[in-house]
Amino acid sequence: MREYVLVFLIGVAVSFMLTPPARSLALRLGAVARVRNRDVHHDAIPYFGGLAMLGGVAATFFLASRLPFLTRYSFVTKDSVTILIAGAIICAVGVIDDLIELNALTKVAGQVLAAGATVLGGVRMQWIPWRGGIITLDPAASVLITVVAVFLCANAINLIDGLDGLAAGIVAISAFSFFVYSYWLTVAEDLARAQTASLVTIAICAICIGYLPHNFHPATIFMGDSGSMLLGLLFASSMISLTSQIEPTSLADRSGLLAAYIPLIMPIVALGLPFLDMVMAYTRRTWKGVWWFVADKQHLHHRLLQRGHTQVRAVFLMYGWTALLAFSALALGLHPSLLTASIVVVVVVSTVIFAVVSGRNLVLEESEKEGSS
Q1: Distance from C-alpha of 78 to C-alpha of 196, rounded to nearest angstrom
Q2: Cis bond leading into 218, ω under 30°?
Q3: For residues 342 and 24, what is the distance between their CA atoms, to the nearest angstrom?
Q4: Most exposed: 33, 42, 89, 242, by fewest CB within 10 Å?
Q5: How many CB atoms lie within 10 A of CB 37?
Q6: Using one digit for the tens of pLDDT, what is the confidence trace for 124-137?
Q7: For residue 235, which of 276, 200, 189, 186 has the smallest C-alpha distance?
Q8: Are 267 and 330 in contact, with CB atoms under 8 Å apart?
């Protein structure tokens, strides 16, 4: 644990210190978020927070490669190099998008390219639960599922990045819960192959916390697509590395078949709020007859603002929902017997979220009544 704490502190410090230079570079190059109809900020804010995050990841992985516990198994260093290269690719795509605003298909191509780098480096999905059992994936299916996982995580975090400090805080909470689970597998369950996921998740948590003071309301910098897609790839890689490196039957032998599903289920539930918002957005846009990538102003955080919440209150409310989901998933991972309790929490949180989304804006409603009268 001492090595993980040291890695975490270095990641926080480097990410924090690199954010102001990244902001200056964005201003110099003109990479700024100009105010659009769907935005909630009122002044142009520079991008490139993702560059500072990438620097933090590089620092944490470099330090980890010099520590005895984290280098006990060669695959940890190999995996971290692979993930860093893939992260640099997807961050570069995001930087270009922050500069010239790429179209959706080009960004998807960049995400596929980054996912391909993880596959070539050996970080890919090996098995999935299916019909009450576990099946080993053939190479084609393994590549496809890995690419889909990167695409979903990158776009889910990108869509939730709509308020100051929102995406970074949500991802930090989710990553911390996943770190606790993977660390528990490493130490308590003596599963050495969980070390890659532990390293990646503690790095995610570190770079988000280091970046957050600059991004919390009122933000002086945005992570942009370079940051949101980087976080998505890192989170997907942590999930993929855990499921690809752990023999599922070893977990099933300990706690039953449900435990073998947890490495796949837990990160999805931990990041449940961005995934839920993404599914609702894609469904809403398709229902309206427009493409899934056509932006709108009906995300969950927009709905909270419309109901009268301030930015800070809306962010903390979504932090709370994320914590409930993430630590319910953690409880399920540590003790599969808590399945019923975890399901209850997920159902309650989802019901509240849907109630907020479907509720009408009381402030606007009153304004409309006054206007009509």
Answers
A1: 9
A2: yes
A3: 45
A4: 42
A5: 7
A6: 887 776 665 667 77
A7: 200
A8: no
Compute φ and ψ for 27, nearest 5 degrees. Answer: -65, -40
Q: What total of structural domains would you count in the chain? A: 1
Residues 6+ apart with CB under 8 A from 81: 61, 121
pLDDT by residue (tens digit) across 148-197? 999 999 989 988 888 888 999 999 999 998 898 888 877 766 666 668 88
pLDDT in tens, 221-280: 999 899 999 999 999 998 888 776 665 555 544 444 455 567 777 788 888 888 888 888
- Written as six digits, the tokens of 273 are 């709020």
For 86, residues 6+ apart whose C-beta sits below 8 A from its C-beta are: 114, 115, 117, 118, 121, 123, 233, 237
Residues spanned by the domain of 231: 2-372
Coil, helix or strand for 166? helix
Quote the CA–CA distance of 74 and 66 in Å, as a whole number: 12
Which DSSP letter does residue 72 get? Answer: S
Yes or no: say if 235 and 157 are a contact pair by the CB < 8 Å rule: yes
User: 19, 52 in Cβ contact below 8 A?
Assistant: yes
Cβ pair 202, 7 in contact under 8 A? yes
176 to 11, 42, 251: CA distances (angstroms): 14, 32, 21
Q: Which residue has the tokens 């995400």?
A: 111
- Rounded to 5 degrees, φ, ψ at 132 are 75, 10
